[in-house]
Design goal:
Largest sheet: 5 strands, mixed
Oligomer: single chain
Radius of gyration: 16 Å
Strand content: 15-25%
Helix content: 25-40%
Strand order of the largest sheet: 1-2-3-4-5
Distance between the termini: 49 Å
Structural class: alpha+beta
């Protein structure tokens, strides 16, 4: 019998939600697509309190049989061209034993409902070029490469550590 996926918004101050969020994020961090290293102890200590204080931060946990199997962390942004808010998916992680079972799609559905209800004009995310399984999942959900026109090319994600 297939068990259903339950998705809930994370309460950053609830001890069980905190534990589940940190467990799922640490699992993701240890994965090659998350960098292959465990979350630093300092990050584990501060993250949930910091997210609780970060205006607009929102996370969802997916559960199967009462166990966390997925996490989506999102942060707000703003589109100056549309003069409306947007939501950026900062992390999405699915337990490897539950990939391909609709967990990611359930998390994305919850996030999209929230973004629409919040008046967002779009949702954004970044994905590694080598993470083809995640790319296929995002494309099934309706995400596509960002470009203004074929002449200007596709957007590239860049960073500079401070």
């Amino acid at each position: 019998m297939q068990c259903s996926i339950v998705v809930k918004v994370v309460d950053y101050l609830d001890p069980s939600d905190r534990q589940a969020l940190l467990s799922m994020l640490d699992m993701y961090a240890r994965d090659p697509m998350g960098g292959g290293e465990p979350l630093p102890a300092d990050t584990r200590l501060r993250l949930c309190d910091d997210l609780a204080k970060f205006s607009g931060a929102i996370s969802w946990l997916a559960f199967k049989d009462g166990q966390p199997v997925g996490l989506l962390n999102a942060l707000p942004g703003y589109s100056t061209f549309k003069a409306r808010p947007l939501l950026n998916v900062h992390d999405i992680a699915v337990d490897p034993a539950h990939r391909g079972q609709g967990v990611g799609q359930a998390l994305l559905t919850a996030m999209e409902g929230y973004a629409r209800a919040s008046g967002c004009c779009k949702v954004t995310l970044e994905v590694l070029s080598g993470n083809t399984q995640a790319q296929r999942s995002y494309q099934r959900f309706g995400f596509e490469q960002y470009s203004l026109s074929p002449e200007t090319g596709q957007a590239l994600f860049m960073q500079k550590w401070l």
